[in-house]
Each structure stands twice: as C-alpha cells, then as structure tokens.
Amino acid sequence: METNGGGDVVAKDHPGWVPGTLRKHREAHGLTLEGSGEELRKIAEIARLPIQANFQTVFNHEAGKAYPNPHYQRAYCLLYNAAPWELQFRNKLPHEEQSQVPKITPHTDSVTGAHVQAVESALLQIAPGGEVDHHGLRHRILDAWRRRHTGGDPHRPHLVLVGGYAGSGKSELAEFISYLTGWPRLDKDSLTRPLVEALLVAHGGDPHDRHTPLYLEKARDAEYQCLMETAADNIRAGISTVLDAPFLREFSDPAWMQRLINRCKAQGAEVAVIWVKCDHDSMKEYITFRSAARDAWKLSNWEEYIKGVDTDFAPKVDHFVVDNRLGSAVSLTDQAKLAIGRMYS
C-alpha cells in the first residue's frame, strides 16, 4: 500500500482505486458508517447481491484495509448512484461517459419512468457484433419485461445463448435478461455439474477437472448435449429460454450454429447469440472471488490458462457483443435491477 499526496490510501494491485473516495461519498449522502451498512443491506436485498455489510466492513473499505469484492463494488455504486470509476474502484474506460449511469427513482418519489430509462440504458450494452437486428432483440427483452406486469406472451419463443470465458460476467448478463423477461435461465454448470463430477470420478479423474483430455473427451460434449436438449424441451413447449455457458467451441462452429437455428426455426423459435467480452484482470478477480472448485486449476496455473483466453474472440455467426471490461456492463444491469426492485417492491 502507498499514500498519495491527498492522504488517500491507494492499492498498487488495483489501478484507479482510492479508498477515501467512498468516505467522501458517504459523507455527501449524510450517512454514518452504521447507516451506510444498513443501506447497503437494503440494496443487496433488492438487487440480489450476496453481501452482509456492517459498519466495520464499510470502515475497512474506506480506510483501504480491505479491497471491496465485486459484489460490494456493485452495491456501493448503487448506494451512491455512481459509476465504478466515479468511486475510483478502477480507471475509466475510453467509451464510458458520466451520463451512462442512469438516475434511480427514490423510494418516496412518484413513478417518473426512471426505472424504464435504467433498463434501456443497461440494454444498450448489447451491441451488434455483425449483421444482426440488435434493436429487435432489445425490443423483445424490454417488451417481455413490460408484459410480465400485464400477462401473456403472444410472440414466438426465443432461445438466447449467452457465452463468454470464465469470470467474464456472462452469468450476470444471462441472469439480468431472465430477471427482466421471466424467461428461465439454464446454467450449464448448475444443470450438469453433479453428473459431470460423477462421470469424471468413474473414469478415475478429478471431479473438478475442466481442462484435461479426460474432461474434454468424456464429459464436455455430454454436458452441452444435456443443456441443449433441456432447452429444446422448453422451446417445444413455447417457452423462451436463456442459456448460460462458455459456448467457445459452439460459437466457433458455423455449421453447429446453423443446425441449431434450423431446429429452432422448425419449432417457430428465434435464436440470438450474445458474446460477453472481458479483460484478463477482471476475469481473474471474479474467478478468485467466487472460489469455485472447478476454477482451482485456472488460478494455480493462471499464466498457462490465459494463453488460451483470446480477449478478441468473436463468434463465427451473427451475434451481439456486450463489452464488460472492468465490469462496466454489469454495473449498468445492477442499476436497472435496483430501479425495477424499487418500483415493484
């Protein structure tokens, strides 16, 4: 740790982070340490963030004794209605502007439409990665969200594939789309992990292996088949579905994707592909934070692992791109979820 000229503690490992900024924002909002912790807990409940804030935690963050984990960073941004770079958790990205952060309708205010603006701002992060109708996808998601409060869905079902490397933020985006639309989210790991682990053990392997030939040859294809067949069941029932998986091999195979599109089309369904782009440091931070057993090899062999992580990867089919470098897109989805939660709680 080192101290800058203004007396703030700066962490060498987190460029742009100035812990004292949190204290300045807290004081500007007229909050005590205890009050800040209480408000963080309220926000966490609405935005579904797994944190248990208290005055000691807030103090440690403000004093630079502990760096806020990703969930705390997201909660602070919501509490102080600020972007991550405004709280100096990180440096600002070239494409980010002050106006990007939507203003949230306060608890006591009448309905002004700010919650709709927050949702629309978050959906603007879904950008075209080719010749795709990005306005159409945004409209379908927003329309599905609105219909959740009026009932009924007269449109054809949609299959949305959200892909990205481990720790890229794909699960947060998939969860956000599911949260808005009410479409079920199928997470590959949640759906198949028990079977994959049992299969690997039966072959004499490590249940948490996700990189050796044993996993790649014996388990990977089967877990993706389980995911896709479950999705197909939903589509046949007319249920729009969001899939959450890396999809690296699948997005690199135009023939595989075309077969999927053709099968869905035969069922009257449309397919949308979203790739979540991220940077190495942000992926490592989130992987470290979540501490999943399946990530142990990645973290122990990080330099070897990232040699296979192409941050410029793009699906070989028409697709959408969400730029989540330094968690910028996830920050906006948090703002939208908080606005919605406050409107309908």
Report on the architecture of this protein.
This protein is α/β, with parallel strands linked by helices. The chain is built from 16 helices and eight strands. It folds into two domains: 2-99, lambda repressor-like DNA-binding domains (434 Repressor (Amino-terminal Domain), Orthogonal Bundle); 126-323, Rossmann fold (3-Layer(aba) Sandwich), CATH 3.40.50.300. Helices cover 50% and strands 9% of the residues. The strands form two sheets. A six-stranded mixed beta sheet has the order 3-8-7-4-6-5, sandwiched between helices. It has a two-stranded antiparallel ribbon with strand order 1-2. The longest helix has 17 residues, at 220-236. The two termini are 42 Å apart. 39% of the residues are buried. The model is unreliable at 1-12 and 98-112 (pLDDT under 50).
Topology (SSEs and partners):
Layout: E1 2-3, E2 9-10, H1 20-28, H2 33-47, H3 55-63, H4 70-79, H5 114-123, E3 126-128, H6 134-147, E4 158-163, H7 170-181, E5 185-187, H8 188-202, H9 213-218, H10 220-236, E6 241-244, H11 248-251, H12 254-266, E7 270-277, H13 280-290, H14 296-300, H15 302-306, E8 320-323, H16 328-344
Parallel strand pairs: 4-6, 4-7, 5-6, 7-8
Antiparallel strand pairs: 1-2, 3-8
